[in-house]
Amino acid sequence: MTIHKSSKYFIAVTSVLLAFLTALSPFGIDTYLSAMPVMAKSFGVSIHLIEITLTLYFLGFATGNVFGGPMSDSFGRKKIALTGVLLYGLSSASIPFAPNVEMVWLLRATQAFGGGFASVTAMVFVRDWFEGKQVAKLATLIGMIMMLAPLFAPVIGSFLLDWGGWHSIFFFLAVYAAVLFLIFLAVMPESRHHTHLTHRITKEQLIGKYRIFFSHRRPVLMLMTISFATAGMFTFITSSSFIYIEYYGFTHRVFPLLFGSNVVLYIALSLLNNWRLKNKEPEQMMKLGLIIQLIGGVLMLVGVSLHHPPFALVFGAIVLFVGSLGLIFGNGTAVILNLMPEISGSANATIGVSRFILSFIAGTIPALFQSGDLVPIGVVMFSLSLLANLFYLLFKRS
What we know:
Its main location: membrane. It is found in: Cell membrane. Belongs to the major facilitator superfamily. Bcr/CmlA family. This is Bcr/CflA family multidrug efflux MFS transporter. By secondary structure, this protein is mostly helical. It has a single domain (10-187, 204-397), classed as Growth Hormone, Chain: A. 80% of the residues lie in helices and 0% in strands. It has 18 helices and no strands. The longest helix has 31 residues, at 217-247. It is globular. It starts with 9 loop residues before the first helix and ends with a helix.
């Protein structure tokens, strides 16, 4: 069975499928966050060595984006998506059998590469079929559906941890990938017109497409804006287990409730965004999101600077910071893709590469400077939000 664009269910079905494709990333991250202390004990290592599996995931995901985007321009979106999902699933199934933490690092990198290789095509499918504000609306809709993953993933992870140990979490990810592969294979049509497919790509073509992107000032400034804003969120995600379980002493059963609270504001702002896009431009809604995130960053910095950071203040700051992305990421992505429609695959790949490399760096800094408190985390989150706002101002003036 194949759905067609003329079907009244086309937008609904493709949005859900592309959201599940994009959700490979949050599921690969959020399901095992509460299990990190248990994994550390299982391998007999510090929790900070387990946190490296997250930062390596960001790096692997970015690398997958580098190759997946341009190759989808040449070979088609569907083939690239299916190949990435397959690699993601095989790597997930192998992690429970890893004999040591170093092997987990390697398999997490290949799992992430597959996820990045596949999910980079999601927004490009949308850009192939639609343009203008419709891209922003669908990007926000997909993002909203995708953000249900961080809401449910920690709950699923906590349940699986109690039921079958940390190993069962990665078996679940393998099954998720297998089901997605089969449905995507049967249902999703190819969006790239066959006349644009070359079925080959040279090193010069690969580099050339990125050179075109970086030769334009406005897309690059918008890229920096959404990358720094998103990296701030991943700084929190990398350290969330430490913040809630290690520092504040909550159990892994309570962790999903705390972590999922961020998603409630994200979804609310996503709904507001789609409603306001009837009269507003994506850039205007994005500005509001950046202001909200900066407020969250300031509150976080103030909170961690206190001798005993109040949980309510830190928690509220994190909810504002992460939830604000409901107004930032979808709109920023739409702006970039609408500015660079001729190389949309490479443009979307550049978005993924930039934000995950910055997330890799931002997630590593608190681990390197871990002092047993929340100061490094708060400083990094505030700094990244400030930089995102500064790059947005440069974008508006360019």
